[in-house]
C-alpha cells in the first residue's frame, strides 16, 4: 500500500520534471527576425534560448527585453544569417562575455562542482543510508540470536495465555 | 534492550562528521556568495589585446579612429552615456583624474544623440583625451560591455589588464585602480628607458 503510494508519487514527479523545461515562453517579439531557411531559423531559436543575457542575469536572450539582449539577438541573427555555425556564435559570445554568456557551462576546474556536485550528493546519501541500514540489520540479527532468560520466557508465556483468554471472551461477547 | 557496546564501528564518526563537514562547507560557500555582487562578471577580455574597431570621434564625425589609438601609453577606457546616471556621478572624479595626468579615452555607448553627448562634455567638462562615438554599441559588444559605466585599464601594448564595472570614485581608485595604473605606468617607463639605452 505504502509502496504503491511512493511509486505513484515518484512517477508523477518524474513526469512533471521531465516536461517542465519544454514550454519556454518568449517574452519578446521575435517577428523581426525572418529567415528563408527554416533550419537557420531553428538554429537561431536554439541559440537565443541557450545564450544568456549578461545584463539581466537569469534570462536567456530570447526572454529579455533589455537593450543589450536585443543587441545580442541582432548580433546572433546577423551571424546565423551569414552562415555561422552554432559553436561559432557561442564562441563569439563566450570570448566577450565569458562562460556566463552560455547556459551550458564548460567542464573546467572552476565549474566542476556544477557537474559533479549532484552526483556527489547522491553517492554520499546512498552511502550513508546503506551504512545505516546495514548497521540496523546487523543489530537486529544480534538481537534475534539473544536467548530470553528463564524469567523472561515465563513472562512471555503468561502474557500470551492472557492474550488468548482475552480474545476468547471477546469472540464470545461478539457472538 | 541490547546495548551497542561491543560493535561500534570506527566509521561512525565519519558518518556523523561528513554531513557536518559538508554543511560547514556549504555555509561558507553561501555566506561568501551572500556578500558578493552577482552582477559583477569577470571580463573574458582581461589579458587580451583590445579588439579591432573603427569608430568616429564624438566631435568630428568624419574623423575615424582605430584600436591603434589605445596603444602607446597606459590608459583608462571609460564607457559612458548621457542616459546613465552613474556616469554623471563619476564624471567629476574623472575630471580630477584627468587633471592629475591620467590618460582617459571615452567610449560613448549608444547615446541618445551625438548632440546630447557633446553638450554633456561642454557643461560637465571633458576629461577625455579623445572620445569614441559608438552609436550602435557594436564596439561595446566587442569589449564585452554589458552596462555603463565600465572602465578598462589598458597597457601601452594595447592589452586589456583590468575591467571595473560601476563608477570610478576616490575609494575605488585608491584601493583598486591606482595600484594597477601605477604598475602599468612603471612597466611603461621601464620599457621606455630600456628601449632608449
CATH superfamily of the largest domain in chain A: Cytochrome C biogenesis protein
Mean of the pLDDT scores of chain A? 82
Low-confidence stretches of chain B: 1-5
> How can the largest sheet of chain B be summarized?
5 strands, mixed
| Distance N to C terminus of chain B | 91 Å
Q: Whole-number radius of gyration of chain B?
A: 25 Å
**CATH-assigned fold name of chain B:** Glutaredoxin
Number of domains of chain A: 2
- Total strands of chain A: the figure is 0
What does this structure look like?
The complex is a heterodimer of chains A (175) and B (197). The radius of gyration of chain A is 32 Å and the shape is elongated. In chain A, helix 2 (38-50) runs antiparallel to helix 3. By secondary structure, chain A is mostly helical. The model of chain A has no long low-confidence stretch (mean pLDDT 82). Chain A has 6 helices and no strands. Chain A folds into 2 domains: 2-106, Cytochrome C biogenesis protein (Helicase, Ruva Protein, domain 3, Orthogonal Bundle), CATH 1.10.8; 118-146. By secondary structure, chain B is α/β, with parallel strands linked by helices. Chain B has one domain (54-196): 3-Layer(aba) Sandwich (Glutaredoxin), CATH 3.40.30. Chain B has 5 helices and 7 strands; from the N terminus they run H-E-E-E-H-E-H-E-H-E-E-H. In chain B, the strands form 2 sheets. A 5-stranded mixed beta sheet of chain B has the order 5-4-3-6-7. Chain B starts with 11 loop residues before the first helix and ends with a helix. Mean pLDDT of chain B is 89; it is low at 1-5. Classes of the chains: A mainly alpha (175), B alpha/beta (197).
Summarize this structure as a short list of keywords or feature phrases.
heterodimer, A: 175 residues, mainly alpha, Helicase, Ruva Protein, domain 3, 2 domains, 6 helices, elongated, B: 197 residues, alpha/beta, Glutaredoxin, 5-stranded mixed β-sheet, two-stranded antiparallel ribbon, 7 strands, 17% strand, signal (chain A), CcmH/CycL/Ccl2/NrfF_N (chain A), Cytochrome c-type biogenesis protein (chain A), CcmH/CycL/NrfF/Ccl2_sf (chain A), heme (chain A)
Amino acid at each position: 500500500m505504502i509502496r504503491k503510494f511512493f511509486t505513484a508519487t515518484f512517477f508523477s514527479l518524474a513526469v512533471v520534471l521531465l516536461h517542465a523545461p519544454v514550454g519556454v515562453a518568449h517574452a519578446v517579439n521575435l517577428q523581426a527576425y525572418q529567415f528563408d531557411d527554416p533550419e537557420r531559423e531553428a538554429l537561431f531559436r536554439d541559440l537565443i534560448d541557450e545564450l544568456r543575457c549578461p545584463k539581466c542575469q537569469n534570462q536567456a536572450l530570447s526572454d529579455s527585453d533589455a537593450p543589450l539582449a536585443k543587441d545580442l539577438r541582432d548580433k546572433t541573427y546577423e551571424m546565423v544569417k551569414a552562415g555561422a555555425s552554432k559553436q561559432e556564435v557561442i564562441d563569439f559570445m563566450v570570448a566577450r562575455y565569458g562562460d556566463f554568456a552560455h547556459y551550458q557551462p564548460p567542464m573546467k576546474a572552476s565549474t566542476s562542482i556544477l557537474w559533479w556536485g549532484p552526483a556527489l550528493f547522491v553517492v554520499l546519501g546512498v552511502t550513508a543510508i546503506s551504512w545505516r541500514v546495514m548497521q540496523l540489520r546487523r543489530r537486529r540479527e544480534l538481537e534475534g540470536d539473544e536467548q530470553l532468560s528463564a524469567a523472561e520466557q515465563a513472562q512471555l508465556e503468561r502474557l500470551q495465555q492472557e492474550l488468548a483468554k482475552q480474545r476468547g471472551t471477546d469472540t464470545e461477547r461478539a457472538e | 534492550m541490547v546495548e551497542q557496546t561491543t560493535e561500534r564501528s570506527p566509521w561512525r564518526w565519519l558518518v556523523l562528521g561528513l554531513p557536518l563537514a559538508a554543511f560547514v562547507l556549504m555555509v561558507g560557500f553561501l555566506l561568501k556568495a551572500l556578500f558578493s555582487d552577482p552582477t559583477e562578471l569577470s571580463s573574458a577580455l582581461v589579458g587580451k589585446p583590445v579588439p579591432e574597431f573603427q569608430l568616429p570621434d564624438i566631435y568630428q564625425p568624419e574623423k575615424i579612429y582605430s584600436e591603434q589609438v589605445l596603444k602607446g601609453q597606459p590608459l583608462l577606457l571609460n564607457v559612458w552615456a548621457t542616459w546613465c546616471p552613474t556616469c554623471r556621478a563619476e564624471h567629476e572624479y574623472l575630471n580630477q583624474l584627468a587633471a592629475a595626468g591620467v590618460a582617459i579615452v571615452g567610449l560613448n555607448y549608444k547615446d541618445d544623440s551625438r548632440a546630447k553627448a557633446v553638450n554633456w562634455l561642454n557643461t560637465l567638462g571633458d576629461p577625455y583625451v579623445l572620445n569614441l562615438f559608438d552609436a550602435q554599441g557594436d564596439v561595446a559588444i566587442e569589449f564585452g560591455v554589458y552596462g555603463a559605466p565600465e572602465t578598462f585599464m589598458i597597457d601601452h601594448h594595447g592589452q586589456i589588464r583590468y575591467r571595473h564595472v560601476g563608477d570610478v570614485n576616490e575609494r575605488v581608485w585608491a584601493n583598486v585602480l591606482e595600484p594597477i595604473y601605477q604598475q602599468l605606468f612603471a612597466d611603461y617607463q621601464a620599457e621606455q628607458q630600456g628601449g632608449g639605452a
